[in-house]
Design a protein that fits this description.
Layout (H helix, E strand, L loop, with lengths): L13 E8 L4 H6 L8 H25 L4 E4 L1 H6 L1 H9 L3 E4 L15 H15 L5 E2 L8 H9 L4 E2 L9 E5 L2 E5 L9 H4 L1 E2 L4 E2 L5 H18 L2 E6 L1 H4 L2 H17 L2 E3 L2 H14 L6 E3 L12
Parallel strand pairs: 1-2, 1-10, 1-11, 2-3, 4-5, 5-7, 6-12
Antiparallel strand pairs: 6-7, 8-9
Helix pairs in contact: 2-4, 2-10, 8-10
The structure holds zinc ion (ZN).
Amino acid sequence: MIRNPIPWPNKARCAVAITFDMDADSLIHIARPEDSHRRLYPTSMGRYGPNVAVPRILETYRRFGLKQSFFIPGWCIETYPDTVEAILKDGHEIGHHGWIHEDPIATYGNQREPFERALDAHRRICGKVPRGYRAPVYNITDEVVDLMLEHGMTYDSSLMGDDIPHSLQAPKGRLYEMPVHWGTDDWPPFAHYDEIGYLMPVKSPSEGLAAFWEEFESQYEAGGFFMLILHPFLTGRLARWRQVEKWIEGVLKTRKVWFTTLGGIADHMTALENAGTWSPSVEPLPYFTTPPAQQG
Ligand SMILES: [Zn+2]
């Protein structure tokens, strides 16, 4: 069982969101700021995302009629405007993912500048302020929560405290949370990236993706929420994406699922709350105001 299941539209049994974090080459520039311009291999690995993988992913979504969510750092929005335009033209959602993938813990106390610089890129190039946010490396902080609320944003997707979407009650306001976890993230099975400290043994496409499909089966059985957290330069590679396509095709034929954007889930939650038919579990923030291990 899961606690407080959400009644999904059209009696769907499970909501499904295939989310992509289009980090592109921001990862190498933030990790190696002094000489990333000389590092052609990791730059090319990142550029594969917007240049090769995203067009492939968009083609699949068009074929199946799906609208999905992408999270893109502001610097990548500015660097790859044609890819961003293609994503928006097909009706997908783009969320906030930092300026150049800076870790909100590493920049704690100074997040306003990169956060708002990214918002400006969204305004200028996407023509709107994003409703959702996913923290680079999931490291959301109270500082970012405050900035999100100040800018009228609706949901975060960085935390791991529940199985399904719920609500975060912070001192300055409320957000929805679309929870992530490592079992549905493609970094552990597929990332091999020495320059940023990851040397995972790369799994075969079927083995790496099989873990995700097991996660789906239990969420489906429980009437829950299945979200993948993918990266175009990892899962948008030919052999992996071919298997994801086959999975989408099978699920659309045989299961009652609701493929949607995270913004779509937020709207559905608001509608249920307004109708008084369901209310979300509430996670109060902050969890702590001082480090517990340092208390006397
Ligand atoms: Zn990222």
